[in-house]
Amino acid sequence: MAAPTADALAAIEARLQRVLDPYRDRLELATIYGNPALRRAGARAHDWFAFVKPQAKHVGFYLLPIHTDEALRASIPPSLRKRLTGRSAFTFTAIDEPVLAELDALVARAFDRYVRPGADG
Question: What is the Cα–Cα distance from 36 to 79, expressed in whole angstroms?
Fold first, then answer.
């Protein structure tokens, strides 16, 4: 299978950024490893929530709460779990709306856990 074109990767990145749009006004923008990331106001460097990172052959979607919350990680649907390539990273080489709907739902659950009082961080 051929690598996605630059235009396809840009479209994937834009679609993944839209997953984070509902949280932009409730979180602050910071950087982690040089990448723009969303996090709680005043959070420490490694207490980020999520970010999108374009790569040469895919686009990564990083969601820290799935690394720190075992129940949340266990709730990842199988079709989305296939894209999990690290402790908090999903890779996308195409836009797959059913899988992105699962990602939307996972991010919403992750956000609730991330901002609740007493959440780990």
Answer: 27
